[in-house]
Amino acid sequence: MIRTVGGTPQASADLPTGEAKTAQVRAMFDAIAPRYDLVNRIITLGLDRRWRSRTFDALGLPGGSTVLDLACGTGDFADLVVRRGCRVVGSDLSAGMLSARHHPFPAVQADAAALPLATGSLDGVVCGYALRNFTDLAASLAEAARVLRPGGRLAVLEVATPENGVMRRGFDVWFGRCVPAIGGLLSDGAAYRYLPRSTAYLPDKDDLRRMLVEAGFATVGRQLLHGGLSQVITATRRGMPGGGAE
Ligand SMILES: C[S@@+](CC[C@H](N)C(=O)[O-])C[C@H]1O[C@@H](n2cnc3c(N)ncnc32)[C@H](O)[C@@H]1O
Fold first, then answer.
1. Which of 24, 33, 69, 173 is the S-S candidate for 90 at Cβ 3.0 to 4.6 Å?
2. Cβ(136) to ligand 1 under 6 A?
3. Rg of the chain over CA atoms, in angstroms?
């Protein structure tokens, strides 16, 4: 397990941190990019589409808004953003994932901790299943806050662990055993063995809330999906236009 101090991942014997993590994560996603969508649909039993829709709804933005799909991968969120009448830009660490985009929406290859986007230029940021992959989570959240306009919205979709005992046991078997087996059959076994282990990087809900506030967000919210199989975290960029109260 990754030990966290105030939400910041600390060194661990078997999970990488720092530059080693960035290099390993980039190489892993480059390798699994061609079959990422297929495996993703199977291991979420197709529920990820519904969860993305709920996440986009949680942004609460009108059509015509400009939204960043942070760590966009092959662009499942980006496609949804466009279908909902918004403009999208994507960013991702992995050239392989960007090359496997379904549609050629505008996107940049960049670490989430250093986005080549103008300050205050976006109305919304969505981010799907990527937080635990970020090497510097605090800096990545600060970048998301920087590129949002005051009052702009963030909605993050992440894995969660169900609290109900029966659900939890089922989840442990599916995520801990079935997912690595399916990933090994269809794609890259090492990558899909890493997937359940990578949840150790994810701060708990209180640490994540504190990190979001420190990054420049207010009104942090969290909803659990399908009995806690996934979670949506929402937040609003502090500093309302015209200096009004938040
Ligand atoms: C599990 S995939 C999710 C992709 C997509 N968001 C989705 O919902 O299907 C995680 C993505 O995060 C990207 N990623 C990992 N670390 C990153 C970083 N430090 N900066 C930007 N993207 C990163 C990976 O390349 C990968 O595309």
1. 69
2. no
3. 17
Q: Which residue in 174, 144, 150 sits closest to 162, CA to CA?
A: 174
- At residue 225, what are phi and psi to the nearest 5 degrees? -115, 140
- CB of 112 closer than 6 A to ligand 1? yes
Contact at 8 Å (CB) between 200 and 1? yes
Question: Could you give phi then psi for residue 35, rounded to 5 degrees?
Answer: -115, 15
Whole-structure pTM value: 0.92
Q: Are 144 and 215 in contact (CB under 8 A)?
A: yes
Q: Which two tokens stand for residue 35?
A: 């079959």
Burial class (CB in 10 A: 0-12, 13-18, 19+), 166: exposed
Q: What is the mean pLDDT of each run of 10 residues along the chain (246 residues)?
A: 43 80 97 94 90 97 98 97 98 98 96 98 98 98 98 96 88 89 92 91 96 97 92 93 42
CA distance 116 to 13: 33
State which H helix or E strand residue 246 sits in.
none
Q: Does 92 contact ligand 1 (Cβ within 6 A)? A: yes
Q: Pick from 32, 223, 2, 46: which is nearest to 134 by CA?
A: 2
Query: How far does CA 197 lie from the centroid of its chain?
Result: 16
Give the nearest ligand 1 atom to 29 CA: 25
What is the β-pairing status of strands 87-92 and 107-109?
Answer: parallel
